[in-house]
Amino acid sequence: MNYVFIQKNRIFFLAIVLLLLLILFFLPSFSSWNNSTVKNTSSSAINLLNYQHPPIPQVDKTAVKPAISTPYYILVDVDTNKILLSNNPNSRIYPASVTKLATALTALNIYPLDEVITVKQEYNEGKVMELKANEKITIRSLVNALLIYSANDAAFNLATHNSDGISGFVSEMNKLAQNNGLKNTHFTNVDGLHHPDHYSTPYDLAQLGRSALKLETIRDTVKKTNLTVTDVDGYYIHTLTTTNELLGIVPEIEGLKTGWTPEADGCFVGLINFKGHYLISVVAVSQDRFGDTQKIIDWTKKYVYYQKYQP
């Protein structure tokens, strides 16, 4: 009788051990699957190419255009590319530092993120992060400075690092523009400083914004209100504060890029999260680019709604 009892206990003990081993074996796989599912769901919120049939944005029939300071603007749904609001969308304007979206896209197309460059010379034209000659810094840090702080010296060094120099880099920017459907855009430089042959349109800038959002690096960077980057040795410290005055203040705004020169006046390409749907707004030649964008957001809340796709 004792023997049977001992045998039963032994079998029970072995069963418990086996069960624990099975739990330990499958738990990491379950955890990994669960985490990747959450991550994929989050990333698909902006990378809306994952939709087979995205919801269709509609504008209420009672909608009237907002009273904003500029006659050059557009609002586009990221998924469907449907224009919801516009005024002079194909008129030529100067993009100023919104140019740096194309600079960033081009850099990310031709350089590895962790590649290290050596600053050849200091560049002090316009807004700069104060890179020092012979400073060694990564492409990632320069792209961050480009998009958050709008640093002209970051743009300059990304271009001079190209084997074909600045002219070769600008040529790649123009190829990128054509490949992404920017038919009325032409770049002559990498930072957006004024040149009469450096131009775009509100519609093209919206398409540039949509193209930029396809890259996770850009999506993550334009959400940051501030960031500190250093050279590879940690000797030079650069504190970057966003030029986007709506970011962190207006909950619907999640990026993208500002621009201003005396000739261009104010420009802003904004990424708007409207009830889980993503829109791109563009205002150009504006004396109140952030106020104008806020009015577009208010207009969106009042007049835009979404319907499920119906074949």
Layout of SSEs?
Blueprint: H1 2-44, E1 56-59, E2 72-77, E3 83-87, H2 99-110, E4 116-118, E5 136-138, H3 139-149, H4 152-160, H5 165-179, H6 202-212, H7 216-221, E6 226-230, E7 237-241, E8 253-261, E9 265-274, E10 277-286, H8 289-303, E11 304-307
Antiparallel strand pairs: 1-11, 2-3, 2-10, 4-5, 6-7, 8-9, 9-10
Helix pairs in contact: 2-3, 2-5, 2-6, 3-4
Family: Belongs to the peptidase S11 family.
Protein name: Peptidase S11 D-alanyl-D-alanine carboxypeptidase A N-terminal domain-containing protein
Domain Peptidase S11 D-alanyl-D-alanine carboxypeptidase A N-terminal: 61-283
Describe the structure.
By secondary structure, this protein is α+β, with helices and mostly antiparallel strands. It has two domains: 1-44; 48-307, DD-peptidase/beta-lactamase superfamily (Beta-lactamase). 39% of the residues lie in helices and 21% in strands. It has eight helices and eleven strands. The strands form four sheets. Strands 3-2-10-9-8 form a five-stranded antiparallel β-sheet, sandwiched between helices. A two-stranded antiparallel ribbon has the order 1-11. It has a two-stranded antiparallel sheet with strand order 4-5. The chain is globular and about 60 Å long. The N and C termini lie far apart (73 Å). Mean pLDDT is 88; it is low at 1-6 and 25-47.
